[in-house]
Structures are given as C-alpha cells and as structure tokens.
C-alpha cells in the first residue's frame, strides 16, 4: 500500500506542485517551517494533508484532533470523489482569485476552500447515515469559518468561495460544478416548509457578494447574479439578474461567468 501511495503522489500534478511550493515557502520563511511541514511535507498525499488540516481546524474540547483525523481519513479513503473534488477546487481558486498565487494557499490559508473541504467530509457522513456526526461537522465549520452548509446539500466541484464570510447553503440546495460565489451569499428557503425548499444552482454560475437566492427555484447554467440581489424567481440560463427583487438586466456577458469573474453589466432591465 505504501508503494501505491508513493506512486500516486508522484504522478499527481496538483500535489506535486503543492509540495514544491511548500518547500519554497519554508526556504523563504523558516519561521513557518513547523506549520508547513505539519500541514504538507509530512504527508504522502493530498488526501492525507486535507484530513490533517480539517481535523486541525475543527478540533475542540468537544472532539479531539486525533478523532477528527480518523473520521476525515476514512472519508477520503472510502470516497475517492473527495480528493478529486478538492483538486478541482484548488485549481478553481488559483484560476479565479487574483489574490491566489500558489496552489499551496487554499490548503494553508483560505477559509473558503477549507470550509468546503470540511463540508465534503460532513456530506460523506450524511450519505453514510451518520447524521449526528455530520451535524457536528456542520456546527464546527460554521463556528470556525463562518460558513454554514447543511451536510445534506449537494455541492459540485470546481467551487470557489471568495472571502467566504457568512455563507449559508440550505439542506435541499444543489450547487453545480464550476460555481463561484462571494461573501454573504445565502441559498435559503422562504418559510417553514420541510420538503424541497432551496435553490438549484446550475453549472458555471457567478453569485455576487451579498446575494440571496430563496426558495426551490432554478438558476440556469452560466448565469450571473449581481451583488446584493434578492432572487425569488427562476433565472434562465446565461442571463444576468440584479435588484431587489432581482430582474433580468441582460445576457450573461460571456460563456463562463464563474470563470471570468466579471461582475460589471449594463443595458436596460428586460423584466423577469
């Protein structure tokens, strides 16, 4: 098994780049040597490093780092999708966030990536029927990162949450692949209904800071939601919506808004 793990790490370009950047970080700032070695260089794979980082961040007097590490290690070992999703998320942050200059940064410093990674561990537990433990992970992610994602929510890969403060994603929400959102985004319900009650966000959607998308509505692929908008009705694919309540104000402006990260728009509102 050790030989297999070594082989995987050698052919994994994301992990190889992270380890190279980690060594360079230690060389340039020796005071971070202990932290970087503990978080990156002591581990044979990205999955092991992620499990360590999740456990380190979420540990408290209520549950030890060692126990959380065992839980996270199990999740990454038994659900190979978690590692693949994490790699896609790292690349997404690097490509879309102008403040990210290295693959190392999301793993070490960015709470948006760390929160979504921890959520994925909780989602694994939820699917395994271990719901109370999944709720515990949700609670700690909310307390530590200010990001509250219900463990039953379904979130795709290639996700970039910039700044990641006051993010709320409800129980029946679905978030597609390659979605970008900024701080204070809410994907919430509209009342006390207990059935399917949260938004369904398509692939490639860009959600601006402070936007609220409420109810069991669909936001079409490659659309844009302007900062501060309150979306109460379905959004067609490849449109831009803005306002309170949000209305269509034009086309999306490009093929992949979530990749371009262009929040500017113009033209008269066409109505929703």
TrEMBL record:
GO MF annotations in UniProt: serine O-acetyltransferase activity
Enzyme class: transferase
EC number: 2.3.1.30
Entry-linked InterPro entries: Hexapep, Hexapep_transf_CS, LbH_SAT, Ser_AcTrfase_N, Ser_AcTrfase_N_sf, Ser_O-AcTrfase, Serine_acetyltransferase, Trimer_LpxA-like_sf
Annotated Gene Ontology cellular component terms: cytoplasm
Pathway connected to this protein: Amino-acid biosynthesis; L-cysteine biosynthesis; L-cysteine from L-serine: step 1/2
Domain Serine acetyltransferase N-terminal: 14-118
GO BP term, example: cysteine biosynthetic process from serine
Keywords for the protein's UniProt record, in alphabetical order: Acyltransferase, Amino-acid biosynthesis, Repeat, Transferase
Highest taxon of source: Bacteria
Entry keyword Hydrolase: no
Catalysed conversion reaction: L-serine + acetyl-CoA = O-acetyl-L-serine + CoA
Keyword Repeat (UniProt): yes
Family named by the database record: Belongs to the transferase hexapeptide repeat family.
Protein name per its UniProtKB record: Serine acetyltransferase
Species annotation: Gymnodinialimonas phycosphaerae
């Amino acid at each position: 098994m050790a030989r297999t793990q070594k082989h995987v790490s050698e052919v994994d370009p994301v992990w190889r780049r992270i380890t190279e950047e980690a060594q360079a970080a230690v060389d340039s700032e020796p005071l971070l040597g202990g932290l970087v070695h503990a978080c990156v260089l002591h581990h044979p794979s990205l999955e092991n490093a992620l499990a360590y980082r999740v456990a380190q961040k979420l540990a408290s007097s209520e549950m030890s780092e060692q126990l959380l590490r065992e839980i996270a290690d199990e999740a990454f070992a038994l659900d190979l999708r978690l590692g693949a999703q994490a790699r896609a998320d790292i690349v997404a942050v690097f490509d879309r966030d102008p403040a990210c200059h290295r693959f190392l940064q999301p793993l070490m410093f960015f709470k948006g990536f760390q929160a979504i990674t921890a959520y994925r561990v909780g989602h694994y537990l939820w699917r395994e029927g271990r719901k109370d433990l999944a709720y515990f992970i949700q609670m700690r992610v909310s307390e530590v990162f200010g990001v509250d994602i219900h463990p039953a929510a379904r979130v795709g890969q290639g996700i970039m949450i910039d700044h990641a403060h006051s993010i709320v994603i409800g129980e029946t929400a679905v978030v597609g692949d390659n979605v970008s959102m900024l701080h204070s985004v809410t994907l919430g319900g509209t009342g006390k209904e207990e059935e399917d009650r949260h938004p369904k966000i398509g692939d490639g959607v860009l959600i601006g800071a402070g936007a609220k998308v409420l109810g069991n509505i669909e936001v079409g692929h490659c659309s844009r939601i302007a900062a501060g908008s309150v979306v109460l009705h379905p959004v067609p694919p490849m449109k831009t919506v803005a306002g309170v309540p949000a209305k269509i104000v034009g086309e999306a402006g490009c093929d992949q808004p979530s990749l371009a990260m262009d929040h500017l728009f113009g033209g008269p509102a066409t109505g929703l």
